[in-house]
Amino acid sequence: MLLATLPEWVPWVVIGALILLLIVWMFFTSKKRKKQEQDAQDLINAVKPGNKVKTIGGVCGIVVEVDNEENTFVLETGTEQSGKSYIKFDRQAIYQTDAVVEKPVSGKDKEKPFEGTEEKSDEEQTADDEN
Questions:
Q1: CATH topology of domain 2-101
Q2: In what order do the strands lie in the sheet with 94-97?
Q3: Residues 8-67: pLDDT tens digits?
Q4: Is 108 exposed, middle or buried (0-12, 13-18, 19+ CB in 10 A)?
Q5: Hey, where are the domains in the chain?
């Protein structure tokens, strides 16, 4: 009975609100996914010789050479006793690494901290209170 007494535009408003909610949700999840993809790409690009790497195939080793033009790296595996081997991989094969992404330092971080935040002596505090 109650639904029959509602104006005919009410269901359209509800449908429109649901569509708007869906669009907003898709926008924010897309933005979050793109940030995660960018962070993963930055980590892959941060790999340099000396970093430990585990590939998607499970091969673990130490990076000895990185070729930015071919987007590849050479991984050293094995030990002196068992014999070392070198394998060339595409950078996209990196699954885990100990590489650290270096964040660029912004201008705000370079500024000196505000001077004048030192604690005042009791005499200076009393003089300020009197003024």
A1: SH3 type barrels. (2.30.30)
A2: 85-90, 72-77, 60-67, 52-55, 94-97
A3: 888 889 999 999 999 999 999 999 999 999 998 999 999 999 999 999 999 999 999 999
A4: exposed
A5: 2-101
Q: How far apart are CA 86 and CA 64, in angstroms?
A: 9
Are 65 and 51 in contact, with CB atoms under 8 Å apart? Answer: no
**Which pLDDT value is given to residue 8?**
83
**H or E element that contains 31:** helix 10-45
Residue from 38, 34, 66, 51 nearest 96 by CA: 51
Q: Which residues of 20-40 are buried (b: 16+ CB within 10 A; e: fewer)?
A: eeeeeeeeeeeeeeeeeeeee
Q: For position 56, what pLDDT does the model report?
A: 93
DSSP secondary structure of 74-85: EEEES-TTT--E
Share of the chain above pLDDT 90, in %: 56
pLDDT above 70 for 83: yes
Question: What are the tokens at 55?
Answer: 């590939």
